[in-house]
Amino acid sequence: MKGKSFVHGHAQMVTPSATPLVSLDDIKMHLRVDHNAEDNYLLGLVAAAVQWCEQLTRRCFLSSTYVLHLDDFPSSLRLNRGAHYSISRREIRILPSPLLSVESITYLADADTRETLATDRYDVIADAHVPLVLPVYDGSWPDAIVHPSSVQIAFTAGYGASPSDVPWPIIQAVMMLAGHLYENREATAPIQIHSVPYAVEALLAPYVHTDYR
């Protein structure tokens, strides 16, 4: 058994959803805007609000593809507390969630060979509070060389392809935050948690991952 305490990694978005979570018509109705002069600006505010809400919750709202890059497979009980994922025992916890599917797990068997792990060698628990990928019972992860991006897990996350798949409180929070930015457009500092309306935090609170580390 390998003796690493944890492995470093990060989840990289590969293909974002092409569908806006909140349509231009909906955000204009929410803000009671009846002209077209700021259409692009409003869409930009929606995109910024979505990004902030996704980062806070550690969730992806509309179906998007990611690759989780790890420097090796895990093998110990310690938890990584500094990256976009965490590991407990042999489990790899996948964030952002919800996890829709795992397309592939590949790894560097040596410096020149990238292997694809057979799907019958690992289990995917997509409906856990934090989705998991782990070896099958009595199985183990293969030996991979320790190297940045040695292990790559391709996955799809999101509630679905349509905004109707996303819980309404999340959409409401995005619209409220976009409205807050619209009314406070002169602010030059990055969005801070204390500057966000309490209602936005309250709406998102049930969806925030607080125990994934």
Radius of gyration: 20 Å
Number of strands: 9
The number of helices is: 4
Spatial strand arrangement across the major sheet: 1-2-9-5-6
Helix content: 10-25%
Average of per-residue pLDDT values: 86
Structural class: alpha+beta
Largest sheet: 5 strands, antiparallel
What overall geometry do the principal axes of the alpha carbons give?
elongated
- Residue fraction in strands: 15-25%
Low-confidence segments: 1-7, 76-83
In total, the number of domains comes to 2
State the order of secondary-structure elements, H for helix, E for strand: EHHEEEEEEEEHH
User: What is the rounded distance between the termini?
Assistant: 23 Å
What does this protein look like?
The chain is of the alpha+beta class. It has two domains: 20-58 and 167-207; 62-157, no CATH class. It has helices spanning 24-31, 39-57, 168-183, 198-204, and strands at 9-15, 64-70, 86-88, 91-93, 99-110, 113-116, 122-125, 132-135, 151-157. The strands form two sheets. A five-stranded antiparallel beta sheet has the order 1-2-9-5-6, with no helix packed on it. A four-stranded antiparallel beta sheet has the order 3-4-8-7, with no helix packed on it. Strand 3 (86-88) and strand 4 form a beta hairpin. Helix 2 packs across helix 3 (168-183). The longest helix is centred in the first third of the chain and has 19 residues, at 39-57. The radius of gyration is 20 Å and the shape is elongated.
